[in-house]
Automatic annotation (TrEMBL):
InterPro entries (UniProt xref): ARM-like, ARM-type_fold, CPL_dom, PUM-HD, PUM3, Pumilio_RNA-bd_rpt
Keyword entries, A-Z: Repeat, RNA-binding
UniProt name for this protein: PUM-HD domain-containing protein
Record-level GO cellular component terms: nucleolus
Cited PANTHER family: PUMILIO HOMOLOG 3
Ranges where the record places region Disordered: 1-40, 61-133
SUPFAM superfamilies in UniProt: ARM repeat (SSF48371)
Source species: Panagrellus redivivus (Microworm)
Amino acid sequence: MALKRVSKKTTTGKVAKPTVTKKVKAKPTTDTTSPKKRVSFAQKLTHSKIIEEEVNVSQDFDATPTKSILKRKLPAPADNDTPKTKKVVKVAKAAEPEAAPSKSEETPKESTSTVPAAKKTAKISKETASTAPAAKKTAKISKAGAKTKLMVTKSVKEKLLNMSAKERKAYLKELKAKKKPLFELSNEMKALWEKIRSSKTPEAVKKEKVDRLFHLVQGKCAKLIYAHDTTRVIQCLLATERKDIRDVLFDELEPELVRMTKSAYARYFVIRMLKYGTNEQRSRIFKAFDGHYTSIFRVVWASGVLERAYSDYCSAARRHTIIAEFYGPEYVFLKKTGAQMPTIQDIQALPRPKQIAVAESLFEHLEGAVAKETIKHSVCHKLLLDYFTLCSKEQRAEMIDALKERVPFFCHTREGSRAAMHCVWFSTPKERKIIVKSFRDLVVNSAKDEFAHRVLLAIFDSVDDTVLVNKIITKDLGNFLGDIINEKFGQWVLHYIVFPRDYRFFLKGTLEMLKQGDGNEHTVKDAAVRYQQIFDGIKKPLLTYMAANMRTMLFNKLQSVLVLNILEPPVDNEPFERVIDDEDKIACFKAIAEVVGEDFVPYNLESESHIIEAGCARFVLSMLLKRDAQQTGPKLSDYLAELPAEQLASFIAVNNGCFVLRNMVTSGSAKAKEAVKNAVTVKALKKSPHIGAQHLLTEISKA
């Protein structure tokens, strides 16, 4: 008989009716004792892959196949075996109500096969439905290992059909109780849990229920902690914040800590104990983990527990002992002896073959983590950095090839960002393109991150394909300047584009770290050309933004330095020569002159200080005026000279204002010198008590 795939269950509770080439009808069996509509177990019996008629699903039964049904494809039977196959299929369909319980009552999932699958009891799979020889036997309970397996037959199916809804519910509950020895205890626990967590329950009643619940679970926690429902009940006891209960539960479950950490549900108990337990209990958890960190790291959800313990509750010494287990078996043995664990610097001092062996051990643990969520954990980032520190050139190339598409996943931590920089520095041009493309739509967040922005700086230093860099990275920076320029590390990225390796702005440690990538074999373009092309990609939007927001930027400490760096003439040790269009420079100089032309009230304490008295803004103005003579093209002093004479004359009321006018005379254009001479008088300067007025008078007399 030809088989066709069944369609998915519809929202109305019906299964679609596919076409079947051959049908074998069964005798109809009806039940008039119950007024409710129920699944007909005998009228149209089919396998989940052979649906001959529409099956209406009542509120008591659900025809949706269980997860195990979808694991393997059902092989098509031979034509001559059709009747026999059909008979087995009937039994399989009969067991589906137990395999898929209704929403109103949890029913056991029962198996029709004698295949030794004791760990997956109460599930109906395709191959068990097609090969179940136990269909001709009566219903019986058999033990397979430590678990109970229920054999469902046609007689049980017909027995369920002849029952009322209430009787069927009780019977299925009885079957489930036989299958799960702790079924009644579980139900009682959950009933108490509902009362405890309800806001309507009085405090006195809650306390009584907590005591009752604790009495029920005590001594049985190791059996209850691994189920998805009962583990939440046990966690509820931890949430009561009663130290006596917490201590007893922890003492009982301490031998299970490693196994619980690897469990999808029980791991939450370990997480809660790390958070709410005492320091002594945390130490016992770490002691239980000793020697098992590598196996914990390999399990995805267990690695999440390890990450939380490593990043939130470990001292530096304990972190080091955790990482040492990944260096190889000899270091695990050394740890058991109580000897001091060697640091990565100690391993670097060992002979080269020893370093390569440690790198190989690290690679074995990291290879499986690259494609998992584990790649986001700081434990993995530390291992990656140690690997790149010790590995050979061939090992490094192999790891970079595995990481090239996932660099944004691990560049958000200190160690992860440094490992990502190694990927950028020592990757091939083809791999660098993949790394740059992996930052698509992540550039803004990376630029604002404390550590991820370093990877962008490494890209600016190493990637010769500036067209791609401008398309993916620089373009996004220009489009979202308003967000980036207001963030500390975003400003650092913009500073680096304007003035790479600026020794006046960046810390010495940052510059030393960036120099590690210099001289790599895959960067061949001249640095000055590369920096110039990257700057050209953001120059226009950056200068446009500056002209429109000049006042805000001048009064911000970091942003004011960016204004100075981009508008000042070339300085010594500058990596490349910035070329700015005259129209952009004029727009910025006019914006500065507009800020200088604001009303000036000396020593005004009621409003924001004028640029003449403001610290960072005055510094930028003075530095630009001091070097105005070296400007090619438009000069700032020309636009300051257009201010009213009364405005310029008011500056001599403060000492800083006198020095601003002096800089206009000494370094400004002839137009600026003339404007200052016309604005201030010698008599006023002689009466001024400020030393800056005397310097200004001297320069005016020379001019």
